[in-house]
Amino acid sequence: MTRSNSQARRSRWLLAAAPLALAMTLAACSEDAPGTGGSGSAAASEEPQTITFTYVQANPDETYYDTLAKDFEAANPGVTVKQNKIALTAADQTIPTQLQAGNGPDVFWINAGSGIQTSVGQLGKAGLLLPLDSSVYAGIPESQMAGYDLDGKTYGVPSSSQVNGSVFNDELAQSVGVNVTATSNISDITAQCPKAVAKGQSVYGLAGSTPQNNGILAVSIAGSAVYGVNPNWNQDRTDGKTTFASTEGWKQTLQAIVDLNGAGCFQKGAAGAGFDALTNGAASGKLYGFFAPSGAAKSIMDGSGGRAKLIVLPAPAPAGVAQKLTLSSNTGLAGNAATKSPQLVQKFLAFSVSAAESKKIADAQGSIPIGEVTAASLLPQYAPVADLVTSGNTIAYGADGWPNPEVYNALGTGITGLLTGQKTVDDVLNAMDAAWG
Amino acid sequence: MSVVTTQTTAAAAQLDRPPRRRRGKATSYRLSFGHWWWALPAVVLVIVTIYVTTAFGAFYAFTDWSGIGKWNWVGLENFQKIFKNPEMLGSLKNTLILAFGFLVLSNVIGLGFALALNRGLKSRYVLRTLVFMPVVIAPIAVSYIWKFVFAYDGPLNQTLALLGLEQYQQDWLADPTLALAAILIVMVWQSIGFAMVIYLAGLATVPQEIEEAAALDGAGPIRRFFSVVWYQIQPSIAIATTLSLIQGLRVFDQVMALTAGGPAGATQTLATQVYQQTFQFGNFGFGAALALMLSLLILVFTVAQQRLTRDRD
After folding, report:
1. Structural domain includes residue A383
2. Which residues of B touch A (CB under 8 A)?
């Protein structure tokens, strides 16, 4: 039996259509978005005046980057900033993937150091970041620029500074006779924790199942015990002159956490608790404070409609160790190496660290502005630590200078092991050394 | 009589003769359901999006790629690292414990429900629906609900306190042993209904007469089950155990939601290690090696399990 001519023609068309459909699908997948990286047709002398801006938005109330983009457009008529908000948990997958694929945004949120995928160290090593002129970050103190450079070039600018310590409800604590100040050390606090336990409360909340909350507690204590004693500890570790396991300050830090847990300073069930335990506990008055970047104070106070009055305190130092305040400027912005508008991107970054915009971001975020800080520029919750901040008696967040995310994870999960009894202090420090490489 | 015979003979002759072809029209009456190239676009799409990407993933298992930038060929170094790392070996052990625990418990309990709700009970249709309902809920949602239940100040510990059993209160998800058991409980709880419906389908094929005959011969319920029913539902056992073994080996949602691999890595599985190494640490090459190893593990166990449960008739 032979096929008709019409059937044969249909067969040939379908055979041709299949690879054509595939080619069109693949071409669509690899097409560059307009105004972003990749080869473009714009002349070198004329940059596109539209840039894309991707940033992290932890909750819908955070609008400071939106305000920054709109202010930039208002100050530069003819310029358009297309915004793209992503969740914090998606940043590490979204931004590096887009940059690697060649369709990344022109400007994006970034972390200082090398601790996560979306960091200056990791993306800079891969050649995906735009080197910045010194004019972009002129006037920003060196301490706030830590971690934004790699191999002699600067790739990002910070958006704000935050104290990594405790966010504390002093009124509630005082009502049961617990007095924690900016100079209270671990021994002072462990002596008072039983008062809170007797009332069915706890001095601190800890999301012990999350490496991030454990890590911020430990590195904040280490700000006094390790980096306060040796500010160049990270460089010494890189040079092989020291290790976590051989540093007395790290042993004191982890032992301090064991002591706080043993004294009942953390809520019951801290080892298995998540972040919801902190918010629920704080909202119900079951705990007085928890360890977090200081911007959390404003979020909670706003969320309570002003009923909660919180202050920012440093993480307590071990007894006998000078108290330091850990200040971190580790979140900021950077430019795409493949952007078609490098000058406009640098102009945007410089605008973001200007005095006026920096103050707007800090006030909206509940943090500390970039640049020179005065007591008047600080929000009320920073009153207990204002002297430390304005006098520059601060230490950078040590983990910002660690070479990879595994070290911080080893610390965070190791602390969970300390709380459950699975690990010893030496086990945790050895694991951190192994992760350092 | 002769007219009838003639007519009958003529009719028979008509039946024997082949059908007369009509001139000028198509003569093929065979129905056609399509041609093989109609599926070609879909086949190409599947090959590109699944098999080609899997092959690329397998390739990166032999490199040190971080997901961005350049990579170097490292050969079998990633695989050697897996077997030298106690944490990875611990993850492998947890994976096998969860997989085989899930296989046994979900199938035994599922078969039990199927036998109980197969015949006789008037409310069996309602009960079947209730038992099956957890299957349709997303595993991550189920896991978060159970995380709330297992929380230190959650309903489980509160119930124990109400019953005067405070001494049995635990931090269920912070104890290394109890946390793994909690994950297994959640996995089994959600999947009992799935195993039940597979076994119900198998039990429907068991002829009731054979069971009645066995009962008449004096066989009790247990003897009837093992001597009659068990052999009849072999295909269902093969399907249910294969699917549950695969599901158990690649468990991810429940672990991430309940414990995220904690406390201190005590509940890490191969699948969660793949996620952590690849997306949290940026070790794409090592993560790909773990994923490849997990895939081979699933393949080996599945083939072995299929051989054990194949129909030997």
Report:
1. no
2. 28, 35, 37-38, 40-41, 44-45, 48, 66-70, 147, 151-153, 171-176, 179, 259-260, 262-266, 276, 279-282
CATH of the domain at B152: 1.10.3720.10
User: Is ipTM beyond 0.85?
Assistant: no
CATH number at residue A245: 3.40.190.10
pLDDT classification of B50: cutoffs 50, 70, 90? very high
Q: Are residues A186 and A259 in the same domain?
A: yes
Average pLDDT, integer, range B159-168: 95
Residues 6+ away with beta carbon under 8 Å from B178: B170, B172
Q: For B126, phi and psi rounded to 5 degrees?
A: -65, -45
> From B41, which residue of chain A is nearest by alpha-carbon distance?
A18
Strands lying side by side in the sheet with A156-158: A80-86, A50-56, A107-111, A331-335, A156-158
CB B281 to CB A405 under 8 A?
Answer: yes
Chain B CA closest to residue A403: B281
Distance CA A89, CA B73 (A): 30
Does residue B244 belong to any structural domain of this protein?
Answer: yes
CA triplet B300, B305, B309: central angle to 5 degrees? 155
Q: How far is B173 from chain A (nearest CA, A)?
A: 6
Same domain, A410 and A350: no
Taking alpha carbons only, the member of A294, A292, A328 closest to residue A401 is A328
Domain span at residue A132 reads 50-159+330-369
Which DSSP string do the residues of B182-234 spell out, in sequence order? HHHHHHHHHHHHHHHHHHHHHHTTS-HHHHHHHHHTT--HHHHIIIIIHHHTH
Largest distance between two CA atoms of chain B? 103
Instruction: Name the band, by pLDDT with cuts 50, 70 and 90, for residue A99.
Output: very high
Within this chain, do residues A178 and A92 fall inside the same structural domain, yes or no?
A: no
Q: What's at B31, amino acid-wise? A: L
Q: Residues A401, A293: one domain?
A: yes
